[in-house]
Write a structure and sequence with these properties.
Layout lengths: L3 H7 L2 E3 L3 H6 L6 E6 L21 H18 E11 L19 H11 L3 E9 L16 E8 L10 E2 L20 H9 L7 E6 L6 H11 L2 H6 L6 H7 L12 H11 L4 H11 L2 E6 H5 L3 E2 L3 E3 L15 H11 L5 E4 L6 H8 L3 E5 L3 H10 L3
Helix pairs in contact: 3-4, 9-10, 12-13
């Protein structure tokens, strides 16, 4: 770990330097969450000749972003999350096969580039802006949304589930709920979860110690085949058994407890590997889930976020709303975790981090915006 004094000087401050320089001072696996919105391509000149966004081509723009997020991959913790808000733009002139006035597709090109370079794209979020600025163009529809991508380094990561209020339309004529066969949220909760109204706690069975996927599959394949195993049991479908032998994550599934009890004697070879697998499949962790309490949280948050833009009192052209930052911070961090914004701008990320009791580090190449950012968290 780098000198603690140097680390302390980095935290809770926006640094007036290129973000790649800031990240070069960080250890590997140092940041819990990265939340940012890089400058959009060919849209704004923020007064710095080395800024991202004023490249001659969108491919140069994407390559510069790739350098940033390759460095971000190194400093992000293995269970961390990266959120990137990125906008699209129209071609102002013909470039190669792309004709003038074409919507270039920057967000999609960026997403594919990130996936090709090892990131896992877990969510493609639509930021809908109900109060979007009207467009002067009369030959296309008004663009009232932007994209926010959620990337991770690994399949398992820290994620605090976020909820939103269940919205049900009410007819002004009949004053009855529409788009639902249930009278109210409480009745829907009871029917969907098969519970009695007076029942509050539900006992959950969780298998948190399952063997590693390929370790389990390779063991089974070394002992038998799906068809041979099927011929030795009477009441398990062959299609079910075949999923246990799949090496691809999408098609694989672990045996249920009852099914494993029916087949394990057939595959038992008395080895340490078998006993390790058997222990993992049979170990159950019991915990209580307060269903009534969880039901009040609403439904799990969807991928369309309707959030108004807000005019800025600062010099920055593109201040995103605090509400847009709040959800990513809450879902990807706990109190005192470190959030990094490589394009801090006027400091919205820092301001929300302070309010939510998170630590933060920011980079901002424009000295005026850097001063604004640091001033916002001092007030």
């Amino acid at each position: 770990m780098r000198n603690e004094l140097k680390v302390k000087k980095m935290i809770n401050k926006t640094h007036n330097e290129n973000c790649n320089v800031t990240m070069s001072k960080m250890d590997d696996n140092f940041i819990q969450s990265i939340i940012t919105s890089p400058p959009y391509f060919n849209l704004r000149d923020y007064g710095h000749n080395k800024q991202i966004g004023i490249e001659n081509s969108f491919s140069d723009y994407l390559n510069n972003l790739l350098e940033v997020f390759n460095n971000a991959y190194r400093v992000l913790k293995d269970d961390g999350i990266l959120f990137v808000n990125i906008g699209d733009t129209y071609a102002s002139k013909k470039v190669g096969n792309i004709k003038r006035k074409t919507l270039i597709g920057i967000p999609d090109r960026f997403k594919i580039m990130m996936i090709d370079n090892g990131w896992i794209c877990r969510s493609d979020i639509i930021w809908h802006k109900p109060n979007a600025i009207p467009s002067s163009a009369k030959d296309r529809f008004v663009n009232d949304y932007e994209r926010v991508f959620m990337f991770t380094k690994n399949e398992k990561y820290k994620f605090n589930t976020q909820y939103e209020e269940r919205k049900t339309k009410v007819s002004s004529k009949t004053n009855k709920r529409q788009e639902s066969k249930y009278l109210n949220d409480e009745q829907e909760k009871q029917v969907r979860q098969g519970m009695n109204k007076k029942r509050g706690l539900k006992l959950l069975e969780k298998r948190n110690h399952l063997p590693e996927h390929l370790f389990f599959v390779n063991f089974l394949r070394s002992r038998t085949s799906a068809k041979d195993l099927f011929s030795n049991v009477s009441d398990i479908k062959l299609s079910t058994i075949e999923h246990w032998f799949r090496k691809d994550v999408g098609g694989f599934s672990y045996p249920k407890l009852d099914d494993w009890n029916k087949v394990k004697d057939f595959v038992n070879d008395w080895s340490d590997d078998f006993h390790k697998i058997d222990l993992g499949l049979m170990t159950i962790d019991y915990e209580y889930d307060d269903i009534n309490k969880n039901a009040n949280k609403g439904r799990i948050k969807r991928c369309v976020w309707s959030i108004n833009t807000k005019p800025s009192k600062e010099k920055h052209f593109a201040v995103y709303p605090e509400e847009l930052i709040k959800t990513p911070i809450l879902c990807s961090t706990n109190e005192n975790d470190i959030v990094y914004d490589p394009f801090m701008g006027s400091g919205t990320t820092a301001k929300v981090c302070k309010e939510l009791k998170r630590k933060w580090i920011g980079s901002e190449i424009n000295s005026d915006f850097c001063d604004i950012s640091n001033a916002r968290v001092r007030t």
